[in-house]
Design brief:
By secondary structure, this protein is mainly α. It is built from 13 helices and no strands.
């Protein structure tokens, strides 16, 4: 009995020590995440910080009538819908190619990983030179008799940024897929080989199902990176780029500079809701396709 009481006292004491060690992390979450989140919700529901009059959904209605927000949301959605699937599919194709028996595998791997080592400022400088009006890209299309294009001030501008996004992210995504492919049980693939299963069957029924968690992770990572592409666009074109390149982050930055906290908070909440819905859908899809292969 004495041993049990002593054990319980010792366990209680350990719990207190653990709580003390957890306290700095909990304070950090409270100060830097929870409190700002509550403040953003509060700002989205009042008219301005001075009067602080409760207006409920008026800020949301005003935001939907704002042409700059609609343009930024439309451009961001278009960019993500094009760039994220391309980043997932192309990196998976590259991983499958490098997994097969092809020559110069290590050289190809180094080539696709090299963008990760290049600073953003250098990448932007290269892109500015390549897609300059008098740059190599216009010289190349001139060979085929095409007129030079102002790439960053035309409807092709988003196409330029998608290429930049893919160039920067394919290498890292490819490594993640290669790790996922290496974790597929070899015995399963050998059985499929003995049973004369077609390459398509092995790809869809075995490889895709086993790497479904990796696909989800790469999709989420690419989605987050697609929202962060603002940094490169801003360095290339400044605060007010060509219409096709005006992203949600431009809208938020410009709104912050104008000290319009209500509009900024409302846009942040809408963006957060959309992100939660998209991530929830991706989790449901991954759970459906990978439920019978996960432990």
């Amino acid at each position: 009995m004495k041993r049990i009481i002593s054990f319980l006292k010792s366990h209680k004491k350990n719990k207190k020590v653990e709580s003390i060690f957890l306290l700095p992390s909990l304070l950090g979450v409270l100060i830097f995440f929870l409190v700002p989140f509550i403040v953003i919700i509060y700002y989205s529901l009042i008219n301005n910080p001075m009067e602080q009059k409760f207006v409920f959904l008026d800020n949301f209605n005003a935001l939907f009538d704002n042409s700059a927000f609609i343009l930024a949301a439309k451009n961001t959605a278009t960019f993500s819908l094009l760039a994220v699937p391309l980043a997932v599919i192309l990196s998976l194709v590259l991983a499958l190619l490098l997994e097969s028996q092809i020559p110069y595998k290590s050289q190809f791997r180094t080539f696709f990983l090299s963008p990760m080592m290049v600073p953003v400022a250098s990448v932007v400088l290269v892109w500015k030179v390549v897609f300059n009006f008098n740059g190599p890209m216009n010289s190349l299309i001139g060979v085929f008799g095409l007129e030079p294009i102002k790439w960053l001030k035309s409807d092709y501008s988003q196409f330029v940024i998608i290429i930049l996004f893919l160039w920067k992210n394919l290498g890292y995504n490819m490594i993640l897929f290669m790790a996922g492919l290496n974790n597929i049980p070899k015995t399963l693939l050998e059985v499929a080989e003995i049973e004369n299963a077609s390459p398509w069957f092995k790809f869809v029924q075995i490889k895709l199902r086993f790497i479904s968690p990796t696909i989800l992770f790469v999709a989420l990572l690419s989605l987050i990176n697609s929202f962060k592409v603002f940094r490169e666009i801003h360095l290339l074109t400044g605060d007010y780029p060509y219409d096709r390149l005006y992203m949600l982050q431009h809208f938020m930055n410009n709104t912050f500079k104008a000290l319009d906290y209500q509009k900024l908070a409302t846009a942040a909440i809408l963006m957060g809701i959309v992100m939660i819905v998209i991530i929830g859908i991706l989790f449901i899809i991954e759970n459906y396709f990978g439920k019978d292969v996960e432990g």
